[in-house]
Design goal:
Structural class: alpha/beta
CATH topology of the largest domain: H-NOX domain
Strand content: 5-15%
CATH class of the largest domain: Alpha Beta
Largest sheet: 5 strands, mixed
Order of helices and strands: EEHHEHHHHEEHEHEEHHHHHHHHH
Distance between the termini: 45 Å
Number of domains: 2
Shape: globular
Length: 351
């Protein structure tokens, strides 16, 4: 069940990141619907339509981004990314799609999205957590993707919610890191939620009751079966991913104090220089991964009431509470205590 790479003229030397070709196929369907020649535009991007046929085929993110750029120029539509989401099919994202569809609550569906997101692409990570009476779903690109692909992800998960809970459902608000588009009508009409642009992160914010409500179509047995398939596929996909391996070791070691790059290299049975080189080839550094891992774990730990802020400081390997507080303010703009209390800065929204 291994991933089949699309044969392209050159590898993605900038980041090594890949995406399922089902995203590319959705872009092509949206182009055809817009009256464009998707075959010609696909060739212009350096992709072969025949190579998209395998359901587990993957392509370098650089090629998909090239197609996004070409598609935006061809359509001249600032909302093209949002519209691509409607051309994603139930089978598009391997077992992850089925597992999410069989989830018993939206909470379970988003947890599966966070857990298995690299099946779709390792160019985007998700964070999902409870904050006061709201659930937050944060979309965090791990490389520069531009606006349209992130718009498509927002549209994708909003469509998922409406397919599971009801067509009229809308989140409390949607925050975009991108600037407000020149033409806002399609964003307002398609998303049907309060919108904010130029935000610190791209996120969907949901009310707690809707996210935790039992879904009529939930099927725990089917969801578990697809979890197993998704995990097997993901394990094969990330077996040689040095970034994933470093994150895993950091998660296990942080409670014993902040490990050095040399410590992690030793645990991975490579030299510190080799580790540094491999991470550089992936477009990242040890300190960046350490910071990202601490950020994700901090949100997870603080969402659980059993951990005090002092305990979280220890679990993340910080030498002092002040160090943790400074880092957390850099990540979120708030202190750990304020974030846990669910204090949300007042923001203006666009209806």
């Amino acid at each position: 069940m291994g991933a089949k790479a699309v044969q392209t003229p050159a590898a993605d030397s900038s980041s090594g990141k890949t995406t399922l070709c089902t995203w590319v196929k959705a872009i092509c369907r949206a182009l055809d619907a817009a009256g464009c020649d998707s075959e010609a535009l696909l060739a212009e991007a350096g992709l072969d339509r025949k190579s998209l046929d395998c359901p587990t085929a993957r392509c370098p993110v650089t090629y998909s981004l090239r197609l996004w750029k070409i598609a935006l120029a061809a359509t001249g539509d600032p909302a093209f990314g949002l519209k691509v989401a409607s051309y994603i099919r139930p089978t598009s994202f391997h077992a992850m799609s089925y597992g999410m569809s069989a989830s018993s609550t939206l909470k379970e569906a988003f947890e599966r999205a966070q857990r298995y997101c690299h099946i779709v692409s390792d160019a985007v990570d998700y964070q999902f957590y409870l904050r006061g009476s709201e659930y937050h779903f944060i979309i965090s690109p791990t490389t520069d993707l531009g606006d349209a692909p992130i718009d498509a992800v927002v549209g994708l998960y909003l469509r998922m919610c409406r397919s599971l809970i009801g067509r009229e459902y809308s989140p409390l608000r949607i925050e975009f890191r991108r600037s407000q588009p020149a033409k806002l009508d399609d964003f307002v009409n398609l998303l049907r939620a309060p919108l904010m642009f130029d935000a610190a992160q791209t996120r969907l914010v949901f009310d707690r009751e809707s996210v935790e409500r039992r879904l009529d179509g939930g099927n725990p047995e089917l969801a578990r079966h697809n979890d197993a398939i998704a995990l097997q596929y993901l394990s094969q996909l990330e077996r040689d991913n040095i970034v994933v391996r470093v994150r895993e070791v950091l998660t296990q070691r942080l409670a014993h104090g902040e490990p050095s790059q040399e410590d992690i290299a030793e645990l991975l049975n490579v030299s510190a220089r080799t580790l540094q080189r491999k991470l550089g080839e992936c477009g990242t550094t040890y300190m960046e991964i350490l910071d990202e891992t601490r950020h994700a774990l901090a949100l997870a730990y603080l969402s659980a009431p059993r951990h005090s802020v002092s305990e979280v400081t220890y679990l993340l390997g910080f030498s002092a509470g002040s160090c943790f507080t400074r880092a957390f303010r850099r990540w979120t703009g708030q202190s750990p205590s304020d974030w846990r209390a669910g204090i949300v800065p007042s923001t203006e929204t666009l209806a």
